[in-house]
Amino acid sequence: MRAIGATGAAAASSAPLLAGHDLRLAYGGRVVLSGVDLAVAPGEIVTVIGPNGAGKTTLLRVLLGLLRPDGGTVDRRPGLRIGYLPQRMPIDPVLPLAVGRLMTLTRRAGHAAVCEALTETGVGHLERAAVATLSGGELQRVMLARALLGSPDLLVLDEPMQGVDFMGEAALYELIGTLRAKRGCGVLMISHDLHVVMAATDRVICLNRHVCCAGTPDAVEQHPEYVRLFGRRTAASLAVYSHHHDHRHGLGGEIVCPPLQPPVSSEHPRAPGRERGE
Question: What is the dihedral sign for C-alpha 178, 181, 183, 185?
Fold first, then answer.
């Protein structure tokens, strides 16, 4: 009986935290999601990339239960705790809002838990600072700390690098990797960059209304030019994702046929014995 129980526990721990199957959604006759499959396992980092209007944020909202799809299903592990960092958090610059107060808006958390989360993301010293005075990187770290309250099993991060410069982006990626390793949580992240992603990403999904391609990134630290420009530690946090699509999209996002063909050289080989101008 114990062995069976242990096996059941192991199976439960390996099951996806969150999974979407054949998700479909349309607004006013315009397809936003078409046949999308996505799953995040415990301790896994999945990065979703795609152009503007590809449906990335819509997909997150469907997975979180904020939008109901027209078709398909979403499975969440029972009792799943989710920490969510939204794409935008509009704050009136004249509003006298301190970081500590922002942490507890719409949720309850003790002072000790707030301080611990802020310290964990490297901004413990900003607890009393006015939110309006924060830099882009500081605000994102505060919002990440807010997402950590409640000890989530899954972090859902919608473009966490907004307003963050390149060096800050690498540092934030390093922090997210550290949090994953320390807490064992899964991470589902939307990235605004189509080619450079977090190096610790286990799987990259390219979305443009449907899944265009998926794969693993190549470490940037293998590219000497990145190391020369930004240093080995920064390069170690970043990776390049190479797209392999068998189709192309029109201006409205629709799939255009026929599929992409290999490029044809503009210089055609000349027949034997013939020269230019003959």
Answer: positive
